[in-house]
């Protein structure tokens, strides 16, 4: 099945990054995703400051599509079984001059999809709370499309003929 046919649901999510005063001599600031904004409009140009306090600030850094695939309902089901369900935000290093030196790249609700990004060592993968409206979308999608696939143990072929 092609990817276009496999994808069946999307939702725009604004990615909110937090800038916090660094605690090491090597970094002035630490950046991490802290939340998402369901249905957020695209970010035009530079990041938008949402709020700030002493030593920290929150920016709407990007709007990314949360894509739900029929083939990944097992990963969504696993995520929904956790308390609370989470979204994984993947950040990549950015050399174009964005404020944090990172750029939001992917957001996913799949516990399986995030693993591929975690092993690369290039991307930074962090979780954020899944808002109730996103939880409802993922749960409805999973209930509608999930099919349990029974485990079938393969029987190995003998390399040598049976003696005796």
Automatic annotation (TrEMBL):
Superkingdom classification of source: Bacteria
Name of this protein: DUF3305 domain-containing protein
């Amino acid at each position: 099945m092609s990817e276009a046919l496999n994808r069946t649901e999307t939702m725009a999510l604004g990615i909110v990054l937090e800038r916090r005063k660094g605690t090491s001599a090597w970094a002035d600031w630490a950046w991490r995703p802290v939340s998402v904004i369901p249905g957020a409009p695209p970010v035009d140009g530079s990041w938008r400051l949402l709020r700030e306090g002493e030593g920290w600030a929150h920016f709407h850094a990007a709007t990314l599509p949360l894509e739900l695939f029929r083939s990944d309902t097992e990963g969504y089901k696993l995520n929904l079984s956790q308390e609370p369900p989470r979204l994984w935000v993947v950040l990549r290093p950015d050399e174009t001059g964005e404020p944090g030196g990172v750029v939001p790249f992917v957001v996913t609700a799949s516990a399986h999809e995030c693993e591929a990004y975690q092993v690369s060592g290039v991307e930074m993968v962090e979780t954020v709370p899944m808002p109730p409206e996103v939880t409802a979308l993922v749960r409805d999608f999973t209930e509608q499309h999930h099919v349990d696939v029974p485990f079938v143990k393969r029987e190995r072929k003998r390399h040598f003929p049976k003696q005796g």
